[in-house]
Amino acid sequence: MGLREQAASDAKNILNDTVGGAGWTFYIYDPTAPTVPVPFIGFTNDIAFLLDPDTDDYVGSRQISVAVSLTDIEAANLSALPDAVADESQKPWVVEFDYNKFKVAKSSPDRTLQVLVLDLEVYQ
After folding, report:
1. Rounded Cα–Cα distance for residues 42 and 11 (Å)
2. Of 110, 101, 109, 113, which Cα lies nearest the Cα of 82?
3. What's the distance, Cα to Cα, between the start and end of the chain in Å?
4. Are 23 and 16 in contact (CB under 8 A)?
5. What is the DSSP string of 58-70?
6. Which residue has the higher pLDDT, 50 or 26?
7. CA-CA distance, 31 to 90, in Å (whole number)?
8. C-alpha dihedral over 75, 43, 65, 61, to 10 degrees?
């Protein structure tokens, strides 16, 4: 196994580790079947306020994201890779965790580590 394959395997193991790692259950709603959420295990992030590194003042923003193994996404047989939907008349990709729903604002697949990071916005 090469170094890249080992790194991808390690990333998947860390993201799927619900006992001692970062793994957390969340759900992705495919816009073609929005009532059937698909469960995933990965890293979730919801930071309500960020600090300005120069002034240490709070900056009124919210940073929300999830990270999941691309092999888990591919195994789920979604209609496509989750991504932002620019057209407001179309249903967006939605991610749910901690009883909150968020829409996908940006999709960043890392094909080397086989990790997908989804930046999210508040949806409901």
Report:
1. 10
2. 109
3. 44
4. yes
5. EE---EEEEEEEH
6. 26
7. 8
8. 170
Q: What is the pLDDT of residues 32-59, one digit of tens each?
A: 987 889 999 999 998 887 777 888 887 7
Place of tokens 């008349």: 89
Among 15-19, 29-33, 74-78, the range scoring the smallest mean pLDDT is 15-19
| Cross-strand bridge partners of residue 43 | 67
Give the global pTM: 0.87
In DSSP notation, the chain reads --HHHHHHHHHHHHHT-SSSSS-EEEEEE-TTSTTSEEEEEEEEEEES-EE-TTT--EE---EEEEEEEHHHHHHTT-SS-------TTSPPPEEEETTEEEEEEEEEEETTTTEEEEEEEE--
